[in-house]
Amino acid sequence: MRYARIAALALAALVSVALPASAADVSGTWKASFDTQIGVQNYTYTFAVKDGALTGKIQSEMGGTTDVTEGKVDGDKISFVEIFKFMEMEIRITYSGKVTSADEIKFTRQVADFATEELVAKRVKQ
């Protein structure tokens, strides 16, 4: 009996190590309001995930709508790029984040080389 319990525990440990973490389900609409160097920004993110690839749209009050590019979801980690157009210039905004619950993602947003911002996106209930 003792050996059967040890074998079961060893098998459970092996299975938990061998199986990859499944991607968090972030598909849907998310909203965030956060303070920046140019004032409070209100964003809406619409995400779709397929096989760990993240796609979607980003809508801001300042820049209209842009596409999610270079998007990935790996377990509870999420990352993507927004290309913001400002006066004929393209500004690369890189997001990296962690899904903290089914309804919340905490992001760090790197705006080119001149600003780093923290924000929390909340799922929009439909």
Describe this structure in words.
By secondary structure, the protein is mostly beta strands. The protein has an 8-stranded antiparallel β-barrel. It has a single domain (22-123), classed as Lipocalin (Beta Barrel), CATH 2.40.128.20. It has 1 helix and 9 strands. The longest helix is centred in the N-terminal third of the chain and has 17 residues, at 2-18. It is globular and about 40 Å long. The termini are far apart. Strand 7 (89-101) and strand 8 form a beta hairpin.
Indicate the radius of gyration in whole angstroms: 19 Å
Q: Point out poorly predicted stretches.
A: 7-11, 13-20
CATH superfamily label: Calycin beta-barrel core domain
Bulk shape: globular
Number of helices: 1
Strand content: over 45%
The CATH architecture can be given as: Beta Barrel
Give the helix/strand class. mainly beta
Explain the layout of strands and helices.
Layout lengths: L1 H17 L9 E9 L2 E12 L2 E8 L3 E4 L1 E6 L2 E10 L2 E13 L2 E8 L3 E9 L3
Antiparallel strand pairs: 1-2, 1-9, 2-3, 3-4, 3-5, 5-6, 6-7, 7-8, 8-9
Please give a handful of descriptors for the protein shown.
126 residues; mainly beta; Lipocalin; eight-stranded antiparallel barrel; 1 helix
Condensed summary:
This protein has one helix spanning 2-18; strands at 28-36, 39-50, 53-60, 64-67, 69-74, 77-86, 89-101, 104-111, 115-123. The chain has 126 residues and is mainly β.
